[in-house]
Protein backbone atom coordinates (compact mmCIF):
# COMPACT_ATOMS: atom_id res chain seq x y z
CA UNK A 1 0.00 0.00 0.00
CA UNK A 2 1.02 3.61 -0.56
CA UNK A 3 2.06 5.91 2.28
CA UNK A 4 -1.18 7.88 2.06
CA UNK A 5 -3.23 4.71 2.45
CA UNK A 6 -1.18 3.58 5.42
CA UNK A 7 -1.56 6.94 7.14
CA UNK A 8 -5.32 7.04 6.66
CA UNK A 9 -5.66 3.43 7.83
CA UNK A 10 -3.79 4.35 11.01
CA UNK A 11 -6.05 7.34 11.58
CA UNK A 12 -9.15 5.17 11.15
CA UNK A 13 -7.78 2.45 13.43
CA UNK A 14 -7.04 4.94 16.21
CA UNK A 15 -10.32 6.84 16.00
CA UNK A 16 -12.29 3.59 16.03
CA UNK A 17 -10.32 2.13 18.93
CA UNK A 18 -10.48 5.34 20.95
CA UNK A 19 -14.26 5.45 20.64
CA UNK A 20 -14.93 1.73 21.10
CA UNK A 21 -12.44 0.80 23.82
CA UNK A 22 -12.38 1.93 27.46
CA UNK A 23 -9.51 4.14 28.54
CA UNK A 24 -8.03 1.29 30.58
CA UNK A 25 -7.36 -0.65 27.36
CA UNK A 26 -5.83 2.34 25.56
CA UNK A 27 -3.46 3.16 28.41
CA UNK A 28 -2.37 -0.30 29.55
CA UNK A 29 -0.09 -1.00 31.45
CA UNK A 30 -0.48 2.45 33.02
CA UNK A 31 -3.04 2.48 35.80
CA UNK A 32 -6.13 4.52 35.04
CA UNK A 33 -9.23 4.95 37.15
CA UNK A 34 -12.70 4.57 35.69
CA UNK A 35 -13.86 3.00 32.45
CA UNK A 36 -14.55 6.15 30.42
CA UNK A 37 -13.11 7.22 27.09
CA UNK A 38 -10.46 9.69 25.99
CA UNK A 39 -11.27 13.36 25.76
CA UNK A 40 -11.68 15.12 22.43
CA UNK A 41 -8.19 16.67 22.54
CA UNK A 42 -6.44 13.33 23.04
CA UNK A 43 -8.69 11.72 20.43
CA UNK A 44 -7.71 14.27 17.78
CA UNK A 45 -4.02 14.34 18.70
CA UNK A 46 -3.90 10.56 18.61
CA UNK A 47 -5.47 10.53 15.15
CA UNK A 48 -2.57 12.50 13.65
CA UNK A 49 0.11 10.66 15.60
CA UNK A 50 -1.22 7.22 14.72
CA UNK A 51 -1.38 8.27 11.08
CA UNK A 52 2.33 8.98 11.31
CA UNK A 53 3.08 5.78 13.23
CA UNK A 54 1.45 3.82 10.41
CA UNK A 55 4.53 4.65 8.30
CA UNK A 56 7.05 3.18 10.76
CA UNK A 57 7.29 -0.36 9.29
CA UNK A 58 8.49 1.08 5.97
CA UNK A 59 11.72 2.13 7.68
CA UNK A 60 13.10 -0.99 5.98
CA UNK A 61 12.76 0.59 2.51
CA UNK A 62 15.34 3.21 1.40
CA UNK A 63 12.87 4.69 -1.12
CA UNK A 64 9.79 4.85 1.11
CA UNK A 65 8.06 7.98 2.41
CA UNK A 66 9.75 7.61 5.79
CA UNK A 67 13.17 7.44 4.11
CA UNK A 68 12.71 10.92 2.62
CA UNK A 69 10.85 12.56 5.48
CA UNK A 70 13.89 14.33 6.94
CA UNK A 71 16.26 14.28 4.00
CA UNK A 72 19.66 12.54 4.12
CA UNK A 73 19.36 11.71 7.83
CA UNK A 74 16.23 9.59 7.45
CA UNK A 75 17.51 8.04 4.22
CA UNK A 76 20.73 6.84 5.86
CA UNK A 77 18.84 5.46 8.86
CA UNK A 78 16.37 3.58 6.65
CA UNK A 79 19.22 2.12 4.60
CA UNK A 80 20.79 0.77 7.79
CA UNK A 81 17.46 -0.57 9.09
CA UNK A 82 16.82 -2.26 5.75
CA UNK A 83 20.09 -4.19 5.98
CA UNK A 84 19.65 -5.10 9.64
CA UNK A 85 16.03 -6.25 9.28
CA UNK A 86 16.63 -8.36 6.19
CA UNK A 87 15.10 -6.05 3.59
CA UNK A 88 11.62 -4.81 2.78
CA UNK A 89 8.71 -6.64 4.44
CA UNK A 90 10.88 -8.72 6.73
CA UNK A 91 11.63 -7.76 10.34
CA UNK A 92 9.79 -4.44 10.47
CA UNK A 93 6.64 -5.96 8.97
CA UNK A 94 6.10 -8.43 11.78
CA UNK A 95 4.18 -8.72 15.03
CA UNK A 96 7.53 -8.67 16.81
CA UNK A 97 8.16 -5.18 15.43
CA UNK A 98 4.74 -4.02 16.65
CA UNK A 99 5.58 -5.29 20.14
CA UNK A 100 9.00 -3.63 20.08
CA UNK A 101 7.78 -0.17 19.05
CA UNK A 102 4.92 -0.35 21.55
CA UNK A 103 7.18 -1.31 24.43
CA UNK A 104 9.90 1.09 23.26
CA UNK A 105 7.42 3.96 23.28
CA UNK A 106 6.17 3.00 26.74
CA UNK A 107 9.72 2.82 28.08
CA UNK A 108 10.64 6.17 26.55
CA UNK A 109 7.52 7.92 27.84
CA UNK A 110 7.82 6.28 31.26
CA UNK A 111 11.53 6.78 31.86
CA UNK A 112 12.48 9.82 29.76
CA UNK A 113 9.28 11.85 30.02
CA UNK A 114 8.52 15.03 28.09
CA UNK A 115 11.73 15.32 26.00
CA UNK A 116 11.17 11.85 24.55
CA UNK A 117 7.47 12.50 24.03
CA UNK A 118 8.05 15.74 22.12
CA UNK A 119 10.80 14.20 19.98
CA UNK A 120 8.52 11.30 19.08
CA UNK A 121 5.60 13.64 18.40
CA UNK A 122 7.78 15.68 16.04
CA UNK A 123 8.85 12.58 14.11
CA UNK A 124 5.35 11.12 13.87
CA UNK A 125 3.92 14.45 12.73
CA UNK A 126 6.67 14.69 10.11
CA UNK A 127 5.64 11.26 8.81
CA UNK A 128 1.97 12.28 8.73
CA UNK A 129 2.75 15.51 6.86
CA UNK A 130 4.77 13.60 4.27
CA UNK A 131 2.29 10.76 3.82
CA UNK A 132 -0.74 13.03 3.58
CA UNK A 133 0.97 15.18 0.92
CA UNK A 134 0.91 18.36 3.01
CA UNK A 135 4.33 19.33 1.68
CA UNK A 136 6.03 19.63 -1.74
CA UNK A 137 6.87 16.31 -3.37
CA UNK A 138 10.33 14.88 -3.97
CA UNK A 139 13.33 14.72 -1.67
CA UNK A 140 14.71 18.24 -2.08
CA UNK A 141 15.51 20.60 0.78
CA UNK A 142 12.27 22.41 0.00
CA UNK A 143 10.32 19.20 0.57
CA UNK A 144 11.85 17.94 3.80
CA UNK A 145 12.46 21.46 5.07
CA UNK A 146 8.72 22.12 4.79
CA UNK A 147 8.05 18.85 6.60
CA UNK A 148 10.38 19.85 9.43
CA UNK A 149 8.81 23.29 9.81
CA UNK A 150 5.24 21.96 9.84
CA UNK A 151 6.12 19.14 12.23
CA UNK A 152 7.88 21.59 14.57
CA UNK A 153 4.86 23.92 14.52
CA UNK A 154 2.53 20.99 15.21
CA UNK A 155 4.73 19.77 18.05
CA UNK A 156 4.73 23.25 19.60
CA UNK A 157 0.92 23.33 19.40
CA UNK A 158 0.51 19.83 20.82
CA UNK A 159 2.83 20.66 23.69
CA UNK A 160 0.03 22.76 25.16
CA UNK A 161 -2.40 19.82 25.11
CA UNK A 162 -0.30 16.72 25.70
CA UNK A 163 0.48 15.43 29.16
CA UNK A 164 4.15 15.03 30.05
CA UNK A 165 3.65 11.26 29.85
CA UNK A 166 0.61 10.55 27.62
CA UNK A 167 -0.30 7.03 28.67
CA UNK A 168 -2.16 6.33 25.41
CA UNK A 169 0.84 7.06 23.16
CA UNK A 170 2.34 3.52 23.24
CA UNK A 171 -1.01 2.08 22.16
CA UNK A 172 -1.25 4.62 19.32
CA UNK A 173 2.24 3.83 18.02
CA UNK A 174 1.71 0.08 18.19
CA UNK A 175 -1.71 0.37 16.58
CA UNK A 176 -0.31 2.44 13.71
CA UNK A 177 2.41 -0.13 13.04
CA UNK A 178 -0.13 -2.95 13.21
CA UNK A 179 -2.48 -1.16 10.79
CA UNK A 180 0.41 -0.86 8.34
CA UNK A 181 1.38 -4.51 8.27
CA UNK A 182 -2.24 -5.67 8.14
CA UNK A 183 -2.74 -3.31 5.21
CA UNK A 184 0.25 -4.80 3.43
CA UNK A 185 -1.26 -8.25 4.01
CA UNK A 186 -4.02 -7.13 1.63
CA UNK A 187 -1.53 -7.10 -1.24
CA UNK A 188 -0.29 -10.07 -3.22
CA UNK A 189 3.14 -10.09 -1.58
CA UNK A 190 1.74 -10.13 1.96
CA UNK A 191 3.92 -9.91 5.09
CA UNK A 192 6.00 -12.19 7.28
CA UNK A 193 3.91 -11.55 10.39
CA UNK A 194 5.75 -14.19 12.39
CA UNK A 195 9.26 -13.14 11.37
CA UNK A 196 11.94 -14.53 11.73
CA UNK A 197 9.89 -17.50 10.56
CA UNK A 198 9.38 -17.33 6.80
CA UNK A 199 5.59 -17.60 6.88
CA UNK A 200 3.98 -15.11 4.51
CA UNK A 201 0.43 -14.02 5.35
CA UNK A 202 -1.66 -12.43 2.60
CA UNK A 203 -5.24 -11.70 1.63
CA UNK A 204 -4.73 -10.25 -1.89
CA UNK A 205 -7.54 -7.72 -2.21
CA UNK A 206 -5.10 -5.19 -3.70
CA UNK A 207 -3.41 -6.75 -6.71
CA UNK A 208 -0.81 -4.02 -7.11
CA UNK A 209 0.27 -1.17 -4.83
CA UNK A 210 -1.30 2.09 -5.98
CA UNK A 211 -3.88 0.46 -8.24
CA UNK A 212 -7.42 1.79 -8.70
CA UNK A 213 -8.89 -0.32 -5.89
CA UNK A 214 -6.49 1.22 -3.38
CA UNK A 215 -6.52 4.75 -4.80
CA UNK A 216 -10.23 5.18 -5.52
CA UNK A 217 -11.89 2.82 -3.07
CA UNK A 218 -9.88 1.72 -0.03
CA UNK A 219 -8.05 4.96 0.79
CA UNK A 220 -11.16 7.19 0.41
CA UNK A 221 -13.09 4.76 2.61
CA UNK A 222 -10.41 5.10 5.29
CA UNK A 223 -10.73 8.89 5.17
CA UNK A 224 -14.53 8.84 5.22
CA UNK A 225 -14.56 6.32 8.06
CA UNK A 226 -12.18 8.41 10.15
CA UNK A 227 -14.23 11.58 9.68
CA UNK A 228 -17.44 9.74 10.50
CA UNK A 229 -16.03 8.28 13.71
CA UNK A 230 -14.57 11.62 14.81
CA UNK A 231 -17.87 13.36 14.09
CA UNK A 232 -19.69 10.76 16.15
CA UNK A 233 -17.23 11.06 19.04
CA UNK A 234 -17.34 14.86 19.09
CA UNK A 235 -21.11 15.24 18.77
CA UNK A 236 -21.88 12.67 21.48
CA UNK A 237 -19.90 14.63 24.07
CA UNK A 238 -22.10 16.32 26.69
Automatic annotation (TrEMBL):
<feature type="transmembrane region" description="Helical">
    <location>
        <begin position="63"/>
        <end position="82"/>
    </location>
</feature>
<dbReference type="GO" id="GO:0016787">
    <property type="term" value="F:hydrolase activity"/>
</dbReference>
<feature type="transmembrane region" description="Helical">
    <location>
        <begin position="94"/>
        <end position="112"/>
    </location>
</feature>
<keyword id="KW-0472">Membrane</keyword>
<feature type="transmembrane region" description="Helical">
    <location>
        <begin position="118"/>
        <end position="136"/>
    </location>
</feature>
<feature type="transmembrane region" description="Helical">
    <location>
        <begin position="12"/>
        <end position="31"/>
    </location>
</feature>
<feature type="transmembrane region" description="Helical">
    <location>
        <begin position="38"/>
        <end position="57"/>
    </location>
</feature>
<dbReference type="Pfam" id="PF04307">
    <property type="entry name" value="YdjM"/>
</dbReference>
<feature type="transmembrane region" description="Helical">
    <location>
        <begin position="143"/>
        <end position="162"/>
    </location>
</feature>
<keyword id="KW-1133">Transmembrane helix</keyword>
<keyword id="KW-0812">Transmembrane</keyword>
<protein>
    <submittedName>
        <fullName>Metal-dependent hydrolase</fullName>
    </submittedName>
</protein>
<feature type="transmembrane region" description="Helical">
    <location>
        <begin position="216"/>
        <end position="234"/>
    </location>
</feature>
<keyword id="KW-0378">Hydrolase</keyword>
<dbReference type="InterPro" id="IPR007404">
    <property type="entry name" value="YdjM-like"/>
</dbReference>
Amino acid sequence: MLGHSHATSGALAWSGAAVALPITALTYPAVQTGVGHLGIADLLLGTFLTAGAALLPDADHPNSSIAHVLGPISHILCTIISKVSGGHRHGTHSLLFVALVTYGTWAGVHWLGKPFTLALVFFLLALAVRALHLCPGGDSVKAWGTVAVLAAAGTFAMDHWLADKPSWLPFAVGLGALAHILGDCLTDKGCRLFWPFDIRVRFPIIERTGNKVETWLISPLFVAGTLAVLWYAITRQP
